[in-house]
User: What shape does this take?
Amino acid sequence: MADLSTPLGKVVGQPSASPLAKHRGLHTVGDLLDFVPRRYAEPGKLTDLSSLVEGEEVTVVARVERVTTRPMRQRKGRMLNATITDGTHELDLTFFSAYGHEGRLVPGARGLFAGTVGRYHQTWQLTHPDYQILDPEEEQEAVEQYTGNLIPIYLPAGKQMPSWKVRNVAQIVLASLGEIPDHIPPDVCKRRGLVDLVSMYRLLHQPPTDKDVARGRYRRKYDEAFTVQTILAQRRTAGEALHTKPRLFVAGGLLEVFDARLPFVLTAGQQEVSAEIAKDLACEHPMHRLLQGEVGSGKTVVALRAMLSVIDSGGQAALLAPTEVLASQHFRSITSMLGDLAEGGMLGGSEIGTRVSLLTGSQPAGIRRKSLLDAASGDAGIVVGTHALIQEHVQFFDLGLVVVDEQHRFGVEQRDALRGKGKQPPHVLVMTATPIPRTVAMTVFGDMETSTLTELPKGRSPIATHVVSNPRWFQRTWERVAEEVRAGHQTYVVCPRIGDSDSDSDQVPGVNKGEFSDEDVEVAFAVDESVPPATRELRSVLEMEVELRDNPALAGLRIAVLHGRMAADDKEEVMRSFAAGTIDVLVATTVIEVGVDVANATVMVIMDADRFGISQLHQLRGRVGRGTSPGLCLLVTETESEMVQQRLLSVAATNDGFTLARLDLEQRREGDVLGARQSGGKSQLRLLQLLRDEDLILAAREDAFAIVGADPELEQHPALRNVIASALDDEQAAYLERG
Ligand code: ADP
Ligand code: MG
Assistant: This one.
């Protein structure tokens, strides 16, 4: 009797096992059982030969109608042609040598034929198909097997192992299967209506009906969700077991003074989230919290308050941004919000004040050295910088809190790396402005607590979005921009390309390193897998700048460009000028997508808007309407596709980020949810396939957390413990592979 770890060769023989190992990486009984059929062919009603597609692998059950052989002109030997039929449609089989086939392929014989569909002289044909004639003695059984039950169709494992041979192997394996321990406890199976493990394999590999397939698949999906949730539950438990210094509120400290000076009242949501964070910080185990909130919902203030309270209790805080532009902006805005509170130790500074330092890769070495020193000595209460820099190069005196801004590109591994930073693990707050659908939050971020800011601060004006797809209105767009500028406001114009010679490569950068240049982010954003490739020349920043300068409607306006390939100083200078209002129109790439905050900018024109994904458009338009004047977003497109226009109209129709995130998720292919780089590993890919099954994930999460809560090491659940260990191995392997 075999179990899941039995080598395949022992059960089905080496000749069958070898191609499965070579082409599909299947080595054990368990591997094979997890290699589930791609689809199931209807029995009885044979594969519809009327709907063949060239190049497709097919397996058909059919009857041999005619057989002819003829000598070949060029070579010795005879060629055999057979015509098979399903009763209505015909398919030709061609063998360049009749030898060995003549006696078996005779009119009236029924068989199972597998091959790749080709087209020859306007007839469909299979060249050298694999086949299995069902001899009359087998007929009864075969008919039952092939006409009574669904016919599972597998991916072939190389030439010697077509779909039907894989099926035979699976049948043998199933027949030899002994008792196997089920990693899902029976009471959970009962409560959730799940079949047990062995039944699941039977239902997937030899299902009598569609209903059975569905039951098998449901259990399998549950398994995947349950495995992921068990891992998350264990991570959560492990996090709770870590010890760190609690950071308690200190009366008369920076936070209190800051609050007293705040020019606005915190929204109810901000107060609530701040209280949650304060409670986390006061704990003896490190906070691990995700803060989501629409662009402009006021996350940064909440984070800053947390940082101040950590400083009050003697610690330091680091703020990690994905790009240099963002890091510099955070540095500027935090410094200005703090005023003299950020001038600790300086003449005229506040007595309780601290210092904020900035760390970016392109700073002059001297300034950078000073920042590093301030971090190490503890003089800098807040260190702002890019992810990579802070993670790799900085020593802190007493790092108490790490705030990670604007990420959905920040994986579990990076979060883990941070934990090793301080004397004791720091508290971690991750902020994201990209609304994360619940299923994603529960899986990808399922080991973290989450807080959500749902309301925007009062006095915000809504953003009106319009799709401009009629070329007649293109010029009107620029007139509208000019009107806004005359009214004292500023405009962004976003293009999908930079436009210098070699920057338009569609390579996705290796973002998993946790290292992002502005350009990386641009490129990563420019390649949105849900958007099909462009079929026309796209607008570029550099061309657009020239075009706008020549446009009479914009005569006299101050126009500048911003993109990732500019020198850091130039970028910095442009952002500063734009913020200061000395630039009217900023032509930029998506480098401005994340977090750039200029309240006086009211118009966002997005060129070739069809090139951007839904969430991305929403994120981009969040750059305007941040002040008290209403924002306007114009989605300019020349697309003729109805579907694409519809996508843009749906963005125009709502400002609710969560609605759009869900829509975005629905439009993406499986596995694309977080972009290609997040789905690199096998285990993650699987995980992402679940993202649409909210109820199932909820159920699995509840069960997994209950089990881990009662038995963190899974001592009572050895089968589950094994499954988790091997899933973690896969994940580790995938991570190492990605480098
Ligand atoms: P986010 O980081 O969530 O995009 P920010 O924290 O940058 O949002 O806030 C956007 C703008 O709103 C900032 O200029 C900030 O000073 C301001 N702001 C934050 N909270 C409030 C509030 N409660 N009332 C009024 N303005 C606020
Ligand atoms: Mg922000």
Notes: Confidence is low (pLDDT under 50) at residues 502-530, 669-688. Residues 299-300, 595 surround magnesium ion (ligand 2) (CB under 6 Å). Residues 210-241 form the longest helix (32 residues). The radius of gyration is 31 Å.
